[in-house]
Structures are given as C-alpha cells and as structure tokens.
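Q&A log
Question type: sequence-to-structure
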Amino acid sequence: MNISFKLRKEDGSITVEASLLIPILLTFLLFLMSLVKISIAEMALQESVSETAQTVAHYSFLSLVIEGQIMSSTEGFIDDLTDDQKDRFGNNEIANQLLDKVSDGVKGEIPAAGELIDTHLAEGAFEDAVRNKYEDKVGTSDFFSPGGIEIIDHNFPQSQGDSDVRIEAENELRLVLPFFEKEINIKKKAVERAWAGG
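Response status: OK
Response body:
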C-alpha cells in the first residue's frame, strides 16, 4: 500500500505572518523602552531633589549664624537710635513710650535671614542645583529635558518656625511613540530636617 500525502505549498506564509507580527513587536519594544526611560527620569529627579535638600539642610546653619549676627547688630543700632532720641526729648514720658513702641515695632519687622532667602533666593538656587544634578545623572536630550525642571514648592529653614528644607520639583517629559504622543509630568518631593541651632 502506497499512501502518499499531498502537501500544500506554503510559500509566502511566513512573510505574511512576519509582516503582521513585526510591527506589533516593534511597538511593544518601543513601549518598553519608553517605560524604562520614564523610570530613569523619575529616579534621577528624585535623587536630584533629595541631594539638593540634603546639601541645603547641611549648610543652612550658616544662614542662621549670619541671621544672629545681623539681628544683634541691628537691634543694638535701633536701641542706640531710640536712646539718642529719648535724650533729645528729655524725660518726656509720652515720647519715651512712643519711641519704645516704634523701636519694638521696627525690630519685629526685620526679616529673618531664612525668610529673606526663602522669599528671594531659594527658588532660583534650588532650581539650578536640581537641574545640574539631574543633567549629571541623565544628560541632555529632548526626552529628559533638564531645562524643563521647575520648583513648584520650597521652604528654607528659619530660626523662628519651620526648620525643614522642603523642595518639590516637576519635570515635563514628552513621550513619542508611533501614532501616539503624550506629555507626562513627574513630580518629586524631598524634606530634610535642618540644624536649627541650640
């Protein structure tokens, strides 16, 4: 008995299967690569924000020392002015009380060094430091974009009140895949306890 099987000719079937499967696999591979890049960007931003907060917390005592010196010399100067004016008015009780109130009010309005730094200098300094550290970690590219980092919240330690260094940064990443484009915002926050004196 002679049984012969008739085999079908399958020329080209592998080409058709590959042409259907390869774009799907490539898209999946690009998606995985994008997830890895997003993870790297998140880790780099967190490390940059944390390192900046640690450095600021470590050296913030310098502003507190300077603040103490400024406050003592400024209060001494205001007291000297008040005493000079009291001498000019003689022993006028109303004038002395008024000068004492003005002197206390002026002393109360002198901003602390931490408050001045937090209000006028901290955001720019924090932003530059975080950007530089981020760029050292991931380099410069259209995706990682160190120039897009913004400080959205910050706090510099002060002698009166909050002695924490707080930095919150945000970076906008542009994810581009075939037939898909998305803006992704990553936010990272770091809080470090600063030396408050004592």
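Response note: The longest helix spans residues 13-59.
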